Amino acid sequence: MKESSAIAALAGLLYDFLPGSGNNATAFPLAAQKVGVAQYWQSGSKLPSLTQLLTLTLEHRRSSFCPLILEIVRQSMTWRGKRDPLTRAEIDQLNKLLPGVGFKIPDLLEPEFLDTFPGAPAAAQAPAAPTTQLQAADPAKLAELSVRIRDLASLAPQERGFAFERFLHDLFDVYGLSPRASFRPRSGEQIDGSFELDGDTYLLEAKWHSALTPAADLHVLNGKLNSRPTWSRALFISYGGFSPDGLVAFNQGKSSLICMDGYDLYETLSRGLPLDRVIAKKARRAVETGLCHVSVRDLF
Length: 300
Prior knowledge:
single chain, alpha/beta, four-stranded mixed sheet, 15 helices
């Protein structure tokens, strides 16, 4: 899905956030005015006007795009009221569409916020009993890690990249996955780290970019795998997510590479899922389907 298609999908979903078409003439301009982008609203109550608002805001005021979405959600909660409240499924769908335009909004991923909506998934309302591996994880350290990943967004880009690698090292360590920090083998190539799971060694690639990770970056990591024994594996973690077109292109070839994005990390930590089983399920699904990236929401 290209960015324009993602905007159209977002506009269609947000349009449905309203209780009826009669409110469309005033509701979205009110949200746009509150975040200072009202000048991009074109008069009219039809869906194309909302699509244009999102498109122009993303093009000219990218820094205002997330605040605009947040304001639309907040006002929609009021507009819909108690008779027809926004549902967890609608917010989940919004969170799935946002990476298509290069964004994730932490406020919309907070468990406390999501639990206020009716229709929360059973897994979110009553998490499955933790495995022995998860019971060994220190709850205090997991809570600390949940705070750390939220705080990373406030750091400068270069500092944030190193902090993200340290966060992942500590996360793997909590689950006893024997992580190794970044290193350079004899070939001189940079490896962000490695860890062990179920007797297999995984290379690690970690990126925190606002842009979606393209297929070219996946091929670079896959090239490192190809120079190693055939039983080698790799995990690519891109906080900003992966280009849908890139995933389609990459999935056409053979690889022992699996992917995680920031939404997967939030789901793992907020729902108390054991990280080792999350990675293991991703690896199994990759073998069964040939897809290097299957979201945690679709696995648990």
